[in-house]
Amino acid sequence: MVRFDAGFRDELAHLFAWRRDVRRFRTDAVDEAVLQPCLRLAALAPSVGNSQPWRFVRVGDPGRRAAVTASFERCNEAAAASYDDARRGAYAQLKLAGLREAPIHLAVFCDEATEAGHGLGRATMPEMLHYSVVTAVHAFWLAARAHGLGVGWVSILDPCAVSSCLDVPPAWRLIAYLCVGHPVEEHEDPELVRHGWQERLDDATTLLER
After folding, report:
1. Which residues contact 118 (CB under 8 A, 6 or more apart)?
2. For the domain bounded by 20-194, which CATH number is listed?
3. At what angle do helices 6-17 and 128-146 cross, to 10 degrees?
4. What does the alpha-carbon distance between residue 187 and residue 194 come to, in Å, rounded to a whole number?
5. Closest CA to 43 of 209, 180, 51
6. How many contiguous H segments (helices) and E segments (strands) does the chain have?
7. How far, rounded to the nearest angstrom, does the alpha carbon of residue 120 sit from its chain's CA centroid?
8. What is the pTM of this model?
C-alpha cells in the first residue's frame, strides 16, 4: 500500500484551500504539456460501475464560443432580474465568468447512453452517472491548480443551447462548462467572500449522528 506522509497531507490541504473558482484569466496560451496531464488525471476519477461517463469537449471555434457567451449573457441578465434591488446591485458588481479571456474552454458532458459499467450501481440512483462526471471535474480542477492553472466553472448557461451549439450526441448532458488558463491574480479566499456576496459557512460539514 502506498503511504503518504504528513508533509504530503499538508500540501494536499494547501491544494484544496487554493482551489479557487477563477474568473480573471490571462489571455496567453496554455502549453499542451501542462493541459494534457491534467486531463489524464481527471480520467482517474471514481465512477459508478467503472462507467467513466465523462466526455470532454474542447471548444475552440470562435462562433461556438460566441454562442456560449451569448447564452451566458442572456442567463446572467435573467438571474440579475430575479433579485430584489439591494441584492441585484451586489450581483451586478460580480465577475461571474472568464469566457472572453480564458484561452481554453472545456465543456464536460455525461454520456447517459454509455454501456460501460453494464448499469452497475445505477438502477436505484441513475443520477450517479452525473455525479461521476462531477468527480472528474473536481479531479481536473485540483490537477490544474497543482500545475499552476486556474479553472472557472460557468453554470449561468442554458445547457440545451450549449449542447446544440456544440453539436454533441443527444444522449450527452452538460454537467460543466469550464474556463481554463493562467490566473491574473491568486487568492486563498473565494471571490464571492472577498466581494461580500456570501461568507463561508462554519457548520457546512457538520457531522450528524443517528
Report:
1. 49
2. 3.40.109.10
3. 100
4. 9
5. 51
6. 7, 4
7. 26
8. 0.92
* Phi then psi dihedrals of residue 144, to 5 deg: -60, -45
Ordered per-residue pLDDT tens for the chain, 210 residues: 889 999 999 999 999 888 888 999 999 999 999 999 999 999 999 999 999 999 999 999 999 999 999 999 999 999 999 999 888 988 888 888 999 999 999 999 999 999 999 999 999 999 999 999 999 999 999 999 999 999 999 999 999 999 999 999 999 999 999 999 999 987 777 777 887 777 877 766 677 778
Grid coordinates in use for 117? 459499467
Q: What is the DSSP string of 126-173?
A: TTHHHHHHHHHHHHHHHHHHHTT-EEEE---S-HHHHHHHHT--TTEE
Q: Is 72 helix (H, G, I), strand (E, B) or coil?
A: helix
